[in-house]
Amino acid sequence: MSDIKEETGQPAPRKRPSGLGRGLNALFGDAAVEAPVLASPGAARPATSAPVGDSVQHIAVGAIRPLPGQPRRHFDENAIAELADSIGARGLLQPIIVRRAPAGEGYQLVAGERRWRAAQRAGLHQIPALVRELDDAATYEIALVENIQRQDLNAIEEASAYRKLIEDFGHSQEALAKLVGKSRSHVANLMRLLDLPVDVQDLVGDGSLSMGHARALIGADGAEAIARRVVQEGLSVRSVEALVREAKGGGRKAPAESPSAAGSGRDPDIVAVERHLSELLGIGVAIHYAGGGKGALTLKFASLDQLDMICQRLSGESI
């Protein structure tokens, strides 16, 4: 992904403190949004110069450019078309977030690229936007958080975003986990996917391989060939683990139980589901199976922000 760079040649502004550790509201800011904030093709609202501040302004769609290196790389064209139809009928109800372009005139998208693309398709000339003064690190933090909370990123995009924040902006895995409301192990496990061959990463990115399949292939000999078999034959994660052991010369073809399952006498399939849900949600998950088809599912959270994210995902609510 391309880097975000200052190119103005002017003295760099005083660096804005990172939002890490200050909660999501500190990252996004509290906008004084008019209710409702509407933009529609027939709106007669004049465009403004969009002064920096915590209020929503209407600025020209053509004056906005995408964020270089933004975490999300893939956009569902059918979903954008549906959103464009909705915007054409009802207007755009939620403002995007932008910052002034580091080089030249106009603005740079921070959050809301899907809405911006749909607004163009719907024929809007102006769009409601919250213009904020952000440095590169804070810009990328907001872009990452917004995409994760909307569940817009695949595992490889999310992992790449974590790596960028660590390598380019000096964040730690612990700080990133707190920022996105997930466990440190989730961040670490995702970043390990970037050790996979590019062809295997592409299969994860397009949904052909699950994160569980991909994790089993990390460091495996012939990972690309095994990945193709998974896609063609619909192999389970445990089957992939067995193939990887064979490739390493282990000679064991039968899938082995995980240590936690073997040591506790628990059903390995229950343990596998538990692990899958934990990886999917990025939090601790425990399944207590009482038999007879009954049991309990426990979701563990480490902060109120993390609890809020869990509630939004379960309810399907977007931010």
TrEMBL record:
Any single GO CC term annotated in Swiss-Prot or TrEMBL for this entry: chromosome
Superkingdom: Bacteria
Low complexity bias: start-end ranges: 256-265
Lipid biosynthesis found in the keyword field: no
Short name of one Pfam family: ParB_N
Domain annotation ParB-like N-terminal: ranges: 57-148
Stretches for region Disordered: 1-23, 248-267
One annotated GO molecular function: DNA binding
GO term, biological process aspect, one: positive regulation of sporulation resulting in formation of a cellular spore
Keyword terms, alphabetized: Chromosome partition, DNA-binding
Function as written in the Swiss-Prot or TrEMBL entry: Involved in chromosome partition. Localize to both poles of the predivisional cell following completion of DNA replication. Binds to the DNA origin of replication.
Family to which this protein belongs: Belongs to the ParB family.
Name of this chain's protein: Chromosome segregation DNA-binding protein
Species the sequence originates in: Sphingopyxis terrae subsp. ummariensis
